[in-house]
Amino acid sequence: MDMMDNxxxxxxxxxxxxxxxxxxxxxxxxxxxxxxxFDEIGVRDIAAAVGVSPxxxxxxxxxxxxxxxxxxxxxxxEIEKWLANLLDSSEELSLEEFSESLIRYLIDxxxxxxxxxxxxxxxxxxxxxxxxxxxxxxxxxxxFEQVLKRNGIECTDRITAHAFYASLNGxxxxxxxxxxxxxxEIEKHINRLSALLCxxxxxxxxx
Length: 207
Fold this sequence. Notes:
It is a single chain. It is built from nine helices and no strands. The protein is mainly α. Helix 4 packs across helix 6 and helix 4 (64-89) packs parallel to helix 7 (127-150). The chain is globular. The model has no long low-confidence stretch (mean pLDDT 87). Pfam families: TetR_N. Keywords: DNA-binding. This is HTH tetR-type domain-containing protein. It comes from Desulfoluna limicola.
């Protein structure tokens, strides 16, 4: 084996180690999102969770914000996989069943809600992160388009899938933490609103 082969293997190993450390930091961030508000989470908190110095984190992420967005992208990928399994489990999944299942999943997911709120406030990301984010959003929208088509709602362009996706997210953002209501009351109200949304989508398709 010549020196170039050894060097190539060494560089691949270093890159693999780097990605593994990035993944650990992302997982720690997701865990912290489930425990405290994003605006209370600093670099020191994340570094302490994995046992490294705060300065060493910047070897893997240019900023705290970049790390937060990477964590959100990873979380969205998990949701997309979950949606794929949901659609594979039933060929006759109604819009209401799809919506109720997704609502239940997201109501129980504090990290997702925290990151959705954060991204709405921040609204910017680097070109590389935007490329990743757009990719996972397209995969999510494919699942919404799939369930719409199964229910006889044609999507000649993606606007209907966009409306369905954005409306469900908006309902969740508005009512998920509504003051003075129990979790059961909130879920019941959100499901009523999502059922109305599904009815409106069908009516629009039939018009």
